[in-house]
């Protein structure tokens, strides 16, 4: 897991625990959720050891891996401490590791894992959404603080997907209302909405209940909806509804153009990242009402903005004639990540998205929120990319105060430049999962 704000302190030994990483060599394996980028290497034939997950994930597991040996699954109750006996590799002595799953508010069944043992406390967020408001997040906040009991969090493995100040988007409740506004402002159109095989159920339920309609989903997705307990809101009959949720991979400009040859159709992409378009996106007034049109963002005419576009609070983008992008995200935006780090103030931070050229190390922005000074990291690490002919982080240390306005501004500027890649590049290069190792060890990818 790449660069991090690491202290030379002893952490959990290698060969004990892996999270969302499925190669052999660990004694216990933990799954945060069932999205494909977190199950790379996991298959129905996998038999490396016991696999721990939430109860809801265990219920969904056969849909993803139909021939998996379910005797390997161990269900963990969210909000409760569980004790696991492992062997300390260096001494061969048994040791107790305690783990508490905490709702990650990312997709059904998704959890963070808080570990404690002789190594101290360690939190692995997986993918998570930490919205400022809402009873569920407040409950999670209380659960985290009560679990730590004012003790120091030694290491935080953090979802840094949107660890960049340019990413600021509204709550999912606000974004859901925006989607409904788009649908109601196109009463004579069919509507297709791009979703994954798991996630955004809250959005689809909101559409169904607000508009008093059923939402079409493909058969495999309907099976998941039934497992989740949503039977009356979804259908596989195309004749009973004009709103259809389709697999994200089938959502393209060519698809929309083809559909519009037979019937007027619009597409909605709910996503925190801007959807890549062939042509320049247009500044549009999507809605008739002033309250909604005020939320519509003005977009740049500069070609260089096509790959990465700043999402202003509550903005909606339109691409071409048929596609709208609404900032509905299952990941935390920058301000939410900052609030999360500030609440916990860990000693070490590791970003779980750690591929070169697309990730931003959270230490670039949050080192001052950690429990101890971070100059050690800057004096021993280099960023994955450097400005051509420019200074590195090490140069900042040599030049003086690493927290000086000049150093901070230049460091943040470099970090934003590192992130200028398209959505497709980000998804292809994202790297998840970790074999948990010593806090000072940098071999866990």
Question: What does this protein structure show overall?
Answer:
With 445 residues, this protein is of the alpha/beta class. The chain is 26% helix and 18% strand. α3 (172-184) packs across α4 (201-211). The model is unreliable at 277-313, 373-430 and 438-445 (pLDDT under 50).
Q: Topology of this protein?
A:
Layout: E1 17-19, E2 28-30, E3 50-54, H1 55-64, E4 73-76, E5 82-87, E6 94-103, E7 111-117, E8 120-124, H2 135-148, E9 155-158, H3 172-184, E10 190-195, H4 201-211, E11 215-216, H5 219-227, E12 234-235, E13 243-247, H6 253-259, E14 265-270, H7 290-293, E15 317-319, E16 323-326, H8 334-344, E17 348-351, H9 363-366, H10 375-380, H11 393-399, H12 405-418, H13 423-429, E18 434-435
Parallel strand pairs: 1-2, 2-3, 3-4, 8-9, 9-17, 10-13, 10-14, 11-12, 14-16
Antiparallel strand pairs: 1-18, 5-6, 6-7, 7-8, 15-16
Helix pairs in contact: 3-4
Summarize this structure briefly.
This protein has 445 residues and is α/β, with parallel strands linked by helices. It has 13 helices and 18 strands.
| Count of domain modules | 2
Kindly report the CATH topology of the largest domain. Answer: Metallo-beta-lactamase, Chain A
Number of strands: 18
Which shape, going by the Cα principal axes?
A: globular
Gyration radius (Cα, Å) is 23 Å
Q: Number of helical runs?
A: 13
Proper CATH architecture of the largest domain: 4-Layer Sandwich
Tell me the strand percentage band.
15-25%
Mean pLDDT: 77
N- to C-terminal distance: 4 Å
Helical proportion? Answer: 25-40%
């Amino acid at each position: 897991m790449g660069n991090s704000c690491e202290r030379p302190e002893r952490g959990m030994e290698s060969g004990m625990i892996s999270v969302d990483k499925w190669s052999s060599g660990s004694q216990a394996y933990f799954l945060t959720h069932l999205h494909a980028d977190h199950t790379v290497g996991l298959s129905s034939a996998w038999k490396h050891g016991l696999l721990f997950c939430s109860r809801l994930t265990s219920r969904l597991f056969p849909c993803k891996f139909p021939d998996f040996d379910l005797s390997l699954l161990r269900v963990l109750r969210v909000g409760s401490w569980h004790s696991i006996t492992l062997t300390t590799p260096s001494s061969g002595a048994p040791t107790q590791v305690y783990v508490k799953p905490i709702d990650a508010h990312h997709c059904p069944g998704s959890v963070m894992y808080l570990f404690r043992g002789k190594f101290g406390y360690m939190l692995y967020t997986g993918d998570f959404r930490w919205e400022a408001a809402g009873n569920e997040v407040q409950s999670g906040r209380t659960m985290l603080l009560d679990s730590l009991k004012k003790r120091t969090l030694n290491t935080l493995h953090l979802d840094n997907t949107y660890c960049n100040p340019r990413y600021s988007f509204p709550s999912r409740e606000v974004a859901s209302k925006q989607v409904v506004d788009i649908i109601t402002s196109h009463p004579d159109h069919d509507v297709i909405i791009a979703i994954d095989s798991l996630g955004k159920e809250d959005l689809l339920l909101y559409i169904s209940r607000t508009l008093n309609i059923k939402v079409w989903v493909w058969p495999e997705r309907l099976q998941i909806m039934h497992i989740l307990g949503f039977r009356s809101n979804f259908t596989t009959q195309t004749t009973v509804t004009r709103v259809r949720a389709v697999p994200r991979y089938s959502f393209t400009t060519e698809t929309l153009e083809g559909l519009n040859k037979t019937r007027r159709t619009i597409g909605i992409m709910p996503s925190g990242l801007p959807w890549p378009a062939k042509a320049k996106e247009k500044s549009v007034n999507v809605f008739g009402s002033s309250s909604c049109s005020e939320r519509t963002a003005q977009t740049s005419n500069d070609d260089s903005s096509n790959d990465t576009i700043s999402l202003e609070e509550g903005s909606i983008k339109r691409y071409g004639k048929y596609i709208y992008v609404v900032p509905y995200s299952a990941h935390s935006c920058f301000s939410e990540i900052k609030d999360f780090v500030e609440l916990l103030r860990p000693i070490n931070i590791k970003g779980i998205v750690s591929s070169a050229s697309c990730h931003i190390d959270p230490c670039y922005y949050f080192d001052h929120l950690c429990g101890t000074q971070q100059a050690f990291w800057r004096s021993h690490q280099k960023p994955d990319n450097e400005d051509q002919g420019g200074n590195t982080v090490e140069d900042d240390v040599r030049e003086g105060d690493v927290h000086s306005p000049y150093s901070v501004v230049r460091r943040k500027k470099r970090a934003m430049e590192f992130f200028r890649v398209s959505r497709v590049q980000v998804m292809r290069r994202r790297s998840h999962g970790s074999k948990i190792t010593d806090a000072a060890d940098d071999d866990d990818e």
